[in-house]
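Worked example 2:
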Amino acid sequence: MKKWFYSLLILCGLPALCPAQSLDEVIRLAQDSAVTAFQSRYEYEYAQAQHARFEALRKPQLQLDITPNYLHFVNDLSRYYVYTRNFDRFSTAAQLKLTQKVLGLGGEAYVGSQAIWSEYFARDNIGRPRDFVAAPLIVGYQQSLLGYNPFRWEKTAEDQRLEAARKQHAYELHCIAEEATRRFFRLACAQGKVDMYERNKQNADTLYAIAREKAGIAMVTLAELRALELQRLNAANALFSARNEETLARESLLAYLRIEDSERFSQRLIVPHDTGELLMSDEEALQLAMSNSPELEHRRLALTEARQQQEKARREAGVKLGVDLNVGMQQMSSRFVEAYTKPQFYMLGAVTVSVPILDHGAAKKGYAAASSWTAREEKALQEEERALGEDVRTTLDNLRSHRQLLARTAEAVAMADDLFQLTADDYANGLCDINTYSLAQNRRDNAYNQYLTALAAYWTTYYHLLTLTQHE
């Protein structure tokens, strides 16, 4: 009779004969197929394209503008002092302009050429001359607000926006790995429980069959036989519930991986048991989290934009100065060639001075509002850093405690197996009753359940730490 018990005891330790999926393979599948991964990748590509567009606009821009224009003019014949005749005018202006943002000052320099053709069509048979206005060369510089350089702020903000998109993409991939790990271990624990309850049901069936044979020769009491029958029924019910949980866990994992094959992951998963040592200290983990957090990068971007608005509001609160200077050559003639023959040099300069005399404090209130918003963003950044630091420290503490608990539960499983084997031997030899045997079995099941829970908690916490630090 001992052979029955020894054969039942080793069922749990038999390896799966079919190929199984490991945690790394599941994470790779999730990062390749999850909807969130596609969305994150497209968002990052969008951010890259936007940043490339921003950098392209800071380089010299050459543009040709052609503007046709039609004017229909009718004078009022009842007003005799109006001497303008009825006419139609058709004109076309063409301008070729090369612009370059002066990044160090905040303005824009330009050089170009312009030509305007005007044709008059009079309805009173009095012809008007054809006009050609040519400006072969125009060189100028313009800046709307002296002392304020928006290009410097825009460069800082755009670089931070691209960096935030990169970190967000990496963060989303780690979140996918974390969620895949959570669903992986849900299925792995369900499969482990199915194995455990299948072993218990086989034990219960075997003991019940042996007890019925002994009952025929009055070696087993009726109460003991009924207890074995109840144990057999409870084992079958527990196995039924475990298989339902396994089915739900498998469907959840398949749905997340976007796999329609319902037979996939029907084999036992390859569960990682070797936790190893954490390859980074608390200080390194906190530094990595602060450097790689997308939320912090978004907060830094918001603070940069708030400071830009504060600087602009400060410049606009006082006297505002703007400048537009240009020099060039220009000529007007009734013939196109003559318009380019003897161009005349000209110089134009415009300085805009805006003095707020009576604005009821609007400019100062605008600066105060911008300053308040900047202070708000600074506090929000500090709070985000504090919350992230607390999350990292809590995760590290949980990881260490889960690792210790995992080692203790593994030791408890080994001890419970040894105890159950000894109890099974005693029961086979008639040295203990069925209650002692059931108690040893329950202790082994409880130890195994605690081990599965600790294993899932450790690895989900481990991947959460990788998500926070974005550590490879």
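The longest strand covers residues 87-102. Residues 150-216 form the longest helix (67 residues).
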